[in-house]
Amino acid sequence: MLDHIGIQAEDVPASARFYDAVLAPLGARRWLEFEGGQVVSFGTTAPGNFWVSAVPSDQRDRAGRENHLAFTAPDRAAVDAFHAAALAVGAESLHAPRLWPEYHESYYGAFVRDPDGNNVEAVCHHP
Question: What is the DSSP track for 32-77?
Fold first, then answer.
């Protein structure tokens, strides 16, 4: 179980716009902004579940790693809407919405690439 997740972005406003679009179908929204929009919080019922902040200037030249973020979707239609919203804001589709029976029989997910190269998923575990 996770309390919150934070990722770093090269361009926080671009990432915030991406997450505004793709998290809306999942029932989440932007809640807080700090440091002139360089730290942004998203959540479903309260702020603080998911944070995007700027990469510190002393770490910008360092090679990064792909992060994987999986957001819970209430139903399969929300997974489909997440994927459509991501494509509408120019995201790369890694995997279109589909069943992933290798995970379990009801695992329905879609995967996209965010502006910083992270693998972002929406998943529904219900039939």
Answer: EEEGGGTEEEEESSSTTSEEEEEPPGGGTTSPP---EEEEE-SSHH
Q: What is the pLDDT of residues 13-62, one digit of tens each?
A: 999 999 999 999 999 999 999 889 899 999 998 877 899 998 877 666 66
Residue 23 CB-density burial (10 A; 0-12 exposed, 13-18 middle, 19+ buried): buried
**Which residue type, as a one-letter code, is found at position 6?**
G
Residues with Cβ within 8 Å of 82's Cβ and at least 6 positions away in sequence, in order, are: 22, 23, 25, 26, 71, 73, 110, 112, 122
Give the pTM: 0.78
* Number of domains the chain contains: 1
- Closest by CA position to 47, among listed 37, 33, 36: 33
Q: Are 93 and 87 in contact (CB under 8 A)?
A: yes
- Asked if residue 34 is part of any domain, the answer here is yes
With the C-alpha atoms ordered 52, 11, 28, 22, is the resulting torsion angle positive or negative? negative
> Using CA atoms, how far apart are residues 83 and 77, in angstroms rounded to an integer?
10
Range of the domain at 46: 5-56+66-124
